[in-house]
Design brief:
By secondary structure, the protein is mainly alpha-helical. The chain has helices at residues 4-26, 51-74, 80-87, 90-101, 108-126, 138-160, 166-188, 196-220, 226-233, 235-247, 253-276. It is built from eleven helices and no strands.
């Protein structure tokens, strides 16, 4: 079995190589990623990005690193269904983080949504039968950290994506996450050579969940504010619940279902209210 941090590091290292190859292919071709149609040679400097994009991408990448590291380690101690619904709290934390950065107090409706989400978390972690029971565990707490880190990532990415080339910014995020995860793995874990059975999971997550997903998210957040980007994130707990039910046989029970519903309702409410307050 590959240790969690090492898995994250290799996954993002492979993803950064994929983005680097896309950049090399992009040399001399019309650029569509930044909304323009002119020929670009920015791919030539993809491996040596400027100081500004390097700094911004590293900051965003560190938030991503904390998010994926806590989520991956957390899954060692909690179920996938539970992890997915707790990660859904990201949407609730986004306006809180955004308000903190802008030095504004959270709105009353956001405070109510946080209370509803907290109640949902209590029900979710207190009403699970069988192997998932036992109340709030270490994995759950780590996954709450995941939600906070992903909220910071959404806010930082929203700011950085408007000022930097999406491909370069994506590459720096992936590379920073890979370097940080591998360094942490070398310090805290006993690193191993991944067995052949692990490379399929590494390849799938690197290509789909890291390289493609992060590039799409970076491009999209040039035009979407953090609150609207958060709407998409409400789908994660839904898919996590379906996958946990079908693939892992996880059951959350009536109280767990009520808690999950509270988390999703709070997330959708915050996203909808934030979107309505946007100008235009």
């Amino acid at each position: 079995m590959v240790p969690p941090l090492e898995f994250v590091g290799i996954r993002f290292l492979v993803a950064s190589v994929i983005i680097g190859c896309i950049a090399a292919w992009r040399i001399g071709r019309p650029s569509r990623l930044d909304g323009g149609g002119s020929t670009t040679t920015q791919g030539r400097s993809i491996l040596t990005p400027g100081t500004a994009v390097g700094t911004a991408g590293t900051a965003v990448g560190l938030a991503l690193l904390v998010g994926y590291a806590t989520q991956t380690v957390g899954l060692v101690y909690t179920g996938a269904t539970r992890s997915g619904f707790i990660t859904g709290l990201t949407v609730v934390f986004v306006p809180l983080v955004e308000g903190l950065f802008r030095r504004r107090r959270p709105r009353a409706d956001v405070a109510v949504a946080v209370a509803v989400a907290a109640a949902g978390l209590f029900l979710l972690t207190g009403g699970l039968p069988g192997a998932l029971s036992g109340g709030l565990n270490k994995g759950d707490l780590l996954t709450v950290g995941t939600a906070i880190a992903f909220a910071v990532h959404v806010v930082l990415l929203s700011r950085a994506s408007k000022h930097h080339d999406p491909l370069q910014l994506t590459f720096v995020q992936l590379a920073a996450t890979a370097v940080g995860a591998l360094a942490a793995s070398a310090i805290f874990e006993e690193m191993v050579i991944p067995p052949s059975s692990s490379w399929v999971a590494l390849a799938v997550t690197a290509l789909g969940a890291s390289a493609a997903a992060l590039l799409i998210m970076t491009c999209a957040q040039r035009y979407l504010p953090p609150s609207e980007a958060g709407v998409i994130l409400t789908l994660e707990p839904v898919f996590a619940g379906i996958a946990g039910y079908l693939l892992l046989g996880e059951r959350i029970g009536p109280l767990g279902g009520l808690g999950a519903a509270c988390i999703i309702a709070a997330s959708v409410w915050v996203s909808a209210r934030s979107s309505r307050r946007l100008p235009g």
